[in-house]
Structure formats: C-alpha cells, structure tokens
Amino acid sequence: MGKWAIAVHGGAGVDPNLPVQRQEAAKQLLTRCLNLGISALRSNCPAIDVVELVVRELETDPLFNSGRGSALTENGTVEMEASIMDGPKRRCGAVSGLTTVKNPISLARLVMEKSPHSYLAFSGAEEFARQQGVELVDNEYFITEENVGMLKLAKEANSILFDYRIPNGGFETCSAGAAATDSPLQMNGLPISLYAPETVGCVVVDQEGRCAAATSTGGLMNKRTGRIGDSPLIGAGTYASNLCGVSCTGEGEAIIRATLARDVAAVMEYKGLCLQEAVDFVIKERLDEGQAGLIAVSKNGEVACGFNANGMFRGCATEDGFMEVGIWP
C-alpha cells in the first residue's frame, strides 16, 4: 500500500489587490474541497472518483470560473469545457462547448467510460449528455450578475478579460480609455488587458498508487464563441499516467503550445527527475513568455505545484498529515 496525496487549484494569476474577504472565501472553498477529497481517500475511493467528486464541488460553487459562475462569451452565454484522465491505463474523456450540462467534469468522465471516443464538443456533446441522462439546466443558471458586469467592462475595453472579477477599484485599469494596445501582456502575440484566469482542477494519487487528474473551466471572459482552451486538451491542460497526474491553469494558448501537463510526465520518465524537479523544469523551460501554473501528484505519494504568475489559488494534502492552502508564492 502506498500513500495518498491530493491537490486542488482555482487558477493561476491573481489580482495583487484582491480584497481580503475574497482571498478568505477562496481559501475556505479550497479547504472544503480538500477535506471532501481527503474523506473520500480515507474511505479507499479510487483516485478517478475523487478528482471527479472534488471538481464537481468546484463547478457547483460560483466563486471560481467553472460550471456556475463561468466566464461569458462575446454573446453573453456560457460555453464550458472539461477533461478527466485515469492514469493506470491512460483512459481519458473531454468535452467542450457545453451550455446546459450542470457538471461538465461528469460528462467528460461519461465520454471516457460510456462512449468509444475521447472528446465530444458542442451539439454532439450536448446530445450525448441527454442520452446519458445527466442533469441539465438552462444556460442562465451559470450566469452571475457579477459576470454580466465584467462582460460589459470587457466590451467597453474591446479586450479579453482574464480576471473577470477585478474589484471595483480596478475597473479603471480596463476602461475604454485604456487601450488594450498599451498592455505589456500578450496572448499569441496580441495584447490583452489583464491576466488572472480561474480554471479549476484536482489531482490525486490513491493508496494503490493510481493517479488521476481533472480540469474544468468556463474559459475567457468575452472570448469568441467556439474558442477552445487548454483545459479539455489531454496532454496540455490535463494528463495522468502510471507516473503522475497533472492539472494546469493559466494562459491556455501557452499551455497548449507547451503540452505542459504531458511534459511533466515526460521529463520524469526521460530525465529521471522527481516530481517537484519536473514541475519546476517545465514551468521555467516550456512556457516561453506565457504565464501559467500547475498542480501534480506522483505514484509515490508526492505532491507539487509550480507557477510563474504572481499567485495561484491552490491547496494540497498528504496522508502524512501535511495540509496547505495558499494564494501567493
């Protein structure tokens, strides 16, 4: 019997002026999700069950950008995406373009277990959801008043907003008078205004040494309809193998180019690095000018995180009794 470990994240890139009450609310949610996962692991639940359980909890709470509380497209609607991967046989499932599925991560698992495919998107994914009898809700369920206001701000600034919950004091930094071209931050070479995505994810290794990973997001505020980020892409936003489980967050286009999650496993396998060494290596060497973060566990019960943004909402725990929740470096 090995030792279990778990890590969760709520996004990399955090407004340095984030109000204390929001910081505390984020920490409380991460702690609650960790405790939920810990309880399941102590009951000998397999890793794949635990990552789904935890991400469902994160999707149900509107605090982070997944499920209810997802960022809005340019048309004011929600298009969600998620992926899940079971390490032992590298089974995986992913979904994109969901508009009515209450818990995208559970549909991703059904793609893995109840279909011959690995990835379903948009109308095909919605039809599969109906066939599988998953809980469906109106698109309005996912939309919050806060996000409606942030979409208006993004449209006034004619830009994509990464931190779609900038506190009131920060609104003027993205006003229509502050041209996006003045921003030093870029995505695919194009200027953006702010950087603070809030994707959610969970990685787990259970007592049998089985690793699993799950990631879920609403994407970018004011994104083009049809945009797909890293979160549903196996090897980019999510990866699990017999060595480790990884969930990423941050600038999706940079994560995709780096195949960031898979690269953690690759350098462990080919370079012989331990988990934290592998995480540090890919964050430093693979992101070019992109900003991102990730959480990871190994089959040996190790847990690690890394990010090159100014902060990342994260928490982790191990069977040895270690538990930590944090935001800043």
From TrEMBL:
Annotated substrate binding sites: R227, I228, G229, D230, T249, G250, E251, G252
EC number, as in UniProt: 3.4.19.5
Transmembrane annotation, as ranges: none
Enzyme class: hydrolase
One example of a Gene Ontology biological process annotation: proteolysis
Active site, UniProt feature: T199 (nucleophile)
Catalytic activity: Cleavage of a beta-linked Asp residue from the N-terminus of a polypeptide
GO molecular function term, any single one: beta-aspartyl-peptidase activity
Keywords: Autocatalytic cleavage, Hydrolase, Protease
Site feature Cleavage, where: E198, T199
SUPFAM superfamilies documented for this protein: N-terminal nucleophile aminohydrolases (Ntn hydrolases) (SSF56235)
UniProt-listed Pfam families: Asparaginase_2
InterPro entries, per the entry: Ntn_hydrolases_N, Peptidase_T2
Subunit structure: Heterotetramer of two alpha and two beta chains arranged as a dimer of alpha/beta heterodimers.
Name assigned to this protein: beta-aspartyl-peptidase
